[in-house]
Design a protein that fits this description.
Helices cover about 30% and strands about 5% of the residues. It is mostly helical. The longest helix is centred in the middle third of the chain and has 16 residues. The radius of gyration is 22 Å and the shape is elongated.
Length: about 100
Amino acid sequence: MIIPPYGVGADLLSRFAELPRLRLLQLESAGVEWIRPYVPEGVVLCNAKGAYDRAVTEWVTGVVLAHLLRLPRFEQARRDERWDYTHTDSLEGKRVLL
């Protein structure tokens, strides 16, 4: 079994054919298109579909809230040591789709 990191070079991927006992390739990502051409006949290719669902959902929720509350703007004002009073929005009454 080999777990190749995403973005590894073609020079290394092409060497899979030199491993006669290789039976399984396990990816750390959901997408397999980038590696499919290098998978030798008879080798099982597994992806990590669903492995990052919760983390991505939490990240998107955080980014939506940061944008809505203008957190980057206020963080920059804090760094600049200036008061930046501006209205921020709320999720109240809004529809959110995750």
